Q: What sequence folds into this?
């Protein structure tokens, strides 16, 4: 994978949540929903790939996805006991910027991005390695769950502000993305 393609992947996976926090007033749950939508789109695309429609390939990412959903939502409930999924999801999806609900922009954008990622790999390597991407997705979901476990421990030990938890999460998310792609950065 070329460095420019990796830089594009890092910017796509990290820059939009960062911009959401800085400019659109996204809280941790809005950032989390964006990441959940992104991971959901990747998982759905894996279900529709003929070469990855095997239970043994899909089981691990699906289990890690469910674990990530449960642990991350558990963390949100810990930070805000009065939080409700329906109202928070609706607030995220229907949040308007320039009179357009962001959910109507983000979902097609994530679908387009995943499709472009697959096409780019086919152009560069001649084929799309769905098994490798499922393993990478499973590893990312596991690491994401661990991040929220660490955040839960930090929440129990320290009284940190909402801004501190968002900065911690975004920093951990960036380190996760960079560590997934460290081999490409180490090449000359």
A:
């Amino acid at each position: 994978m070329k460095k420019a393609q990796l830089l594009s992947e890092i910017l796509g996976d990290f820059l939009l949540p960062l911009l959401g926090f800085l400019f659109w007033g996204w809280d941790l749950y809005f950032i989390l929903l964006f990441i959940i939508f992104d991971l959901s789109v990747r998982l759905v695309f894996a279900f529709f790939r003929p070469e990855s429609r095997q239970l043994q390939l899909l089981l691990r990412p699906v289990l890690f996805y469910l674990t990530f959903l449960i642990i991350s939502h558990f963390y949100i409930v810990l930070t805000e006991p009065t939080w409700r999924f329906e109202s928070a999801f609706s607030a995220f999806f229907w949040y308007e910027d320039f009179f357009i609900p962001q959910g109507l922009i983000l979902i097609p954008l994530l679908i387009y991005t995943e499709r472009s990622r697959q096409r780019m790999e086919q152009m560069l390597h001649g084929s799309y390695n769905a098994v490798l991407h499922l393993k990478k997705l499973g590893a990312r979901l596991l690491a994401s769950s661990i991040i929220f476990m660490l955040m839960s421990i930090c929440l129990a030990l320290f009284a940190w502000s909402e801004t501190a938890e968002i900065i911690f999460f975004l920093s951990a998310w960036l380190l996760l993305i960079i560590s997934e792609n460290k081999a490409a950065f180490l090449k000359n």
